TrEMBL record, chains A, B:
<protein>
    <submittedName>
        <fullName>2-alkenal reductase (NADP(+)-dependent)</fullName>
    </submittedName>
</protein>
<dbReference type="InterPro" id="IPR011032">
    <property type="entry name" value="GroES-like_sf"/>
</dbReference>
<dbReference type="InterPro" id="IPR036291">
    <property type="entry name" value="NAD(P)-bd_dom_sf"/>
</dbReference>
<dbReference type="GO" id="GO:0016628">
    <property type="term" value="F:oxidoreductase activity, acting on the CH-CH group of donors, NAD or NADP as acceptor"/>
</dbReference>
<dbReference type="InterPro" id="IPR020843">
    <property type="entry name" value="ER"/>
</dbReference>
<dbReference type="InterPro" id="IPR045010">
    <property type="entry name" value="MDR_fam"/>
</dbReference>
<feature type="domain" description="Enoyl reductase (ER)">
    <location>
        <begin position="20"/>
        <end position="337"/>
    </location>
</feature>
<dbReference type="InterPro" id="IPR041694">
    <property type="entry name" value="ADH_N_2"/>
</dbReference>
<dbReference type="Pfam" id="PF16884">
    <property type="entry name" value="ADH_N_2"/>
</dbReference>
<dbReference type="InterPro" id="IPR013149">
    <property type="entry name" value="ADH-like_C"/>
</dbReference>
<dbReference type="Pfam" id="PF00107">
    <property type="entry name" value="ADH_zinc_N"/>
</dbReference>
<keyword id="KW-0560">Oxidoreductase</keyword>
Length: 342, 342
């Protein structure tokens, strides 16, 4: 079987601090577009790749996380949308569109197919399966409904609120009849939160010198639910502003991922005083909710009741910069890399 | 109505840092042993008073806690066991024994009787109603069974484990078939944990230079449940040793109560990685469980399946020193002050 050329993004070596261009490089290898004889693997053409905050911890060596570190010298792994070119697996056939765990390259031979899901409908943008209809969407859904146990009328705060997960949490909370405030790192994002996603209020955390006072201004009655995507100083300020029996969904802590020395959170005593439940979660524990989630979200998307904003870059070559940009908040909305459109 | 003399412990003024002798003083006032005409108050003779860690935050001014700060120049409030001398309230009669919120004095006129509970049985030591049969007992019960949702065979770690609450949590966990390790601050307490309370293992945290390594030694498989009475550095070390889907009951943070600047906890990212639920609670939310708790614990006490260790001092004059001693760990077991034995 003839091999074709296969452009790839290679992870160079373990890092500390902020990732840079130099930590990844583009190479071209070759690949056969057939799965090996007798294998249950799936051979896909990658269409859209997802840049996600959890990818940063994978760039540092650890044996103690829910997901393995990247391997130096190997292609970067991540979520994506792909088209099946050949399949040895009974669940997948040539021509199927799938989303799930793939690699940052033009073509991938996927041997671990447990994390691959067939795309049920294409009457929404296909790239949505890297975001609202993929892992980040399910994260927002499980995190908000299962972890936060929200009630109508409650006061909800979302950090990194214009990101892939945050924008959805805010909209889910509004649909339920909550009061929702979001924070983000630029005027453009704050405008998006208020004008496009329908948050009640939004603020630029970079312009606030006193986060505790800022949150008190937006939540004079306190916060019932905090959907935490950032950790660190923001979490510390939130703890001082929680209401009795409040809930904190610990979804991500992007403020800490590039630090060599983690910031200390000082106000945990408020977890006792306010009888707060803080719960961390990893989306792989909630995949069983995916069909239920789709059933809920697809009609909302089609009716325009939930909107989704993506920040797309073109070409695999752009992927390293796109991933790096996440950690300085350069993206506006969900960061997607277009490898091929079909 | 003639008045009698009434010795009292007065709270002097708000403090920072560790409390000292000079922050309380003994005075003698007078009191009528009758409730005022038409009042629904209860007039009691105080028998046993309880020294509890949560009393320290009340010595600093705050409006942001679940319990009010003490009033400078006023008698100290706290849990105790008392005998009713006169009552304007239909639920209480002369001669009743009660436990609940009273004051550090010989006789108290209790106007807020919602926190007063009639003592159902006296075939156990009466002082137990400041501890195993009172607030700390209910705290251990609700904290362990409701907050920690324990399962047989799980790995349980308790800090301040020889204290009023900790010694019970350990014994409840053993009864359920868990593996239990406790920490305390002296050899005497460690011996107590192993030899009297039946913990599987115990260690003196003051002798450990590396708490993370120490916990790894006692929990090579990790910790399923951490019952946290201390917060701070210990909590930080525990976070690195939690198992997937672990639970942390945030019951108290005595390591922080005397600090002007709270310690930062750096390892919260593990709440996400390990999908941990950390939940703070205040026992007033669980008073409805008291009858159920008594039903469980009384037979165990009578059969000797659960033991309880108290550290008693005699006389109201000893109360300030006894309270202060809590914060340096001077007490061995539950700290009780005997005001009168009947």
């Amino acid at each position: 079987m003839a091999e074709v050329s296969n452009k790839q993004v290679i992870f160079k070596d373990y890092i500390s601090g902020f990732p840079t261009d130099a930590d990844m490089y583009i190479t071209t290898s070759t690949i056969s577009l057939k799965v090996p004889e007798g294998s249950k693997a799936v051979l896909v053409k990658n269409l859209y790749l997802s840049c996600d905050p959890y990818m940063r911890p994978r760039m540092t060596y650890t044996t103690d996380s829910y997901v393995d570190s990247f391997k130096p010298g190997s292609v970067i792994e991540g979520y994506g949308v792909a088209k099946v070119l050949d399949s040895g697996h009974p669940n997948f056939s040539k021509g199927d569109l799938v989303w799930g765990f793939t690699s940052w390259e033009e073509y991938s031979l996927i041997t671990s197919t447990e994390m691959l899901i067939k795309i049920p409908t294409t009457d929404v943008p296909l790239s949505y399966y890297t975001g609202i209809l993929g892992m980040p969407g399910l994260t927002a859904y499980a995190g908000f409904y299962e972890i936060c146990t929200p009630k109508k009328g409650e006061y909800v705060y979302v950090s990194a609120a214009s990101g892939a997960v945050g924008q959805l949490v805010g909209q889910f909370a509004k649909l339920l009849g909550c009061y929702v405030v979001g924070s983000a790192g630029s005027k453009e994002k704050v405008d998006l939160l208020k004008n496009k996603f329908g948050f009640d209020e939004a603020f630029n955390y970079k312009e606030e010198t006193d986060l505790v006072a800022c949150l008190k201004r937006y939540f004079p009655e306190g916060i019932d639910i905090y959907f935490d995507n950032v950790g660190g100083k923001m979490l510390d300020a939130v703890l001082l502003n929680m209401r009795v029996h409040g809930r904190i969904a610990a979804c991500g802590m992007i403020s800490q991922y590039n630090l060599d020395k983690l910031e200390g959170v000082c106000n945990l005593i408020n977890i006792i005083i306010k009888q707060v439940r803080m719960q961390g979660f990893v989306i792989t524990s909630y995949y069983h909710l995916y069909p239920k989630y789709l059933e809920m979200v697809l009609p909302h998307i089609k009716e325009g009741k939930i909107v989704y904003v993506e920040d797309t870059v073109e070409g695999l070559e752009s992927a390293p910069q796109a991933l790096i940009g996440l950690f300085s908040g350069r993206n506006v909305g969900k960061q997607v890399v277009v490898v091929a459109r079909e």
